């Protein structure tokens, strides 16, 4: 079940193989596990369409610096603190924690994972560390372009916290056979003390962050309920934002809501409908449903002052749950304004390929124009440096 829940779920199989090996299980068990792993992988990947995800030009191999940073951001996100898309002190502290956790995990694997162990909890800890590291690597490969906000989302902390838990389990019991690292009393004491401090911080910060996120989610659900019972009066952008239905046509969402009401499903199946309608009326009078223009769009790729060459992909994210009619992209160089053309909408924003070999090496600005129901919005240009081999 875990291996089919998501693509990283397939990491269960190599991690389980580590446990079987460390526990000195019989060859028949190991062979059976391998057959099941290959079968599960084949079934999962059958008809798997990689083009439905982020464009391949945005993977970590194309941006190794971002990928390395994201790798440590994911591991340092065990406190559940959502970071903003910036490079402030909080982001750097999160990366530092990721580096520290990586070093602790490496020490645990090197000191307790060298020898096979059929009795202690160390193999389980080593397996959890490996799963967390594999997940962090996979995340850094696929989503390095998305910035620290995505890397530190609470849903990802569930996986990366396994590194911390595994390190604790691996170091909990004395080693079956000593290694040079395990015999160093100074290193062992320092590692244990640091691990205890991080565990305490995780309990405190993780709990407070979790309660804060849960409170925000609860308010969002309450707002969604009031929007749902008052769809006839709510503007389309507010409806899409409140219900999180920005990828669906508004008329289709309204037809779904009508079906829910007729069939007495969702909130229409509870005794709170009358109260919700009164709440919606009060919020409408207070101006809570007034539509305001969404914030400016963000160019996720290329990043500002990035050096580019060859064919790159321009990726534009438009927050606010709005549905633009179109996006045009221009290239500015001094007084010159070259039209790159319209962008294509995808699940990850609006994208357009740009062949940088068609322009001279130098500094340029990417200017985007978003067309929506309120007209055309010109966004802040992003400066890039083109440097193709001569």
Task: Describe this protein's structure.
With about 400 residues, the protein is α+β, with helices and mostly antiparallel strands. The chain has three domains: about 5-185, no CATH class; about 215-285, no CATH class; about 300-385, Immunoglobulins (Immunoglobulin-like), CATH 2.60.40.10. It is built from twelve helices and ten strands. A hairpin with a 2-residue loop joins strand 6 (about 345) and strand 7. It is globular and about 70 Å long. The chain starts with 11 loop residues before the first helix and ends with a strand. About 30% of the residues are buried. The mean pLDDT is about 80.
Describe how the helices and strands are arranged.
Blueprint: H1 12-22, H2 27-45, H3 64-76, H4 89-112, H5 122-143, H6 148-151, H7 154-172, H8 180-183, H9 185-229, H10 236-243, H11 250-262, H12 273-285, E1 298-301, E2 306-308, E3 311-317, E4 326-333, E5 336-342, E6 344-346, E7 349-355, E8 362-372, E9 375-378, E10 382-386
Parallel strand pairs: 2-10
Antiparallel strand pairs: 1-3, 3-7, 4-5, 4-8, 6-7, 8-9, 8-10
Helix pairs in contact: 1-2, 1-5, 3-4, 3-5, 4-5, 4-7, 5-7, 7-9, 9-10, 9-12
Q: How many discrete domains?
A: 3
Shape from CA axes?
globular
Given as residue ranges, the uncertain stretches (5+ residues, pLDDT < 50) are none
> What is the number of helical segments per DSSP (H or I, 4+ residues)?
12
Q: What share of residues is helical?
A: 40-55%
Which percent range describes the beta-strand content? 15-25%
Radius of gyration: 25 Å
Q: Which structural class fits the helix and strand makeup?
A: alpha+beta
Alpha-carbon distance between the termini?
53 Å
Average pLDDT confidence is 82
Largest sheet: 6 strands, mixed
Q: How many runs of DSSP E, i.e. beta strands?
A: 10
**Helices and strands, in N-to-C order?**
HHHHHHHHHHHHEEEEEEEEEE
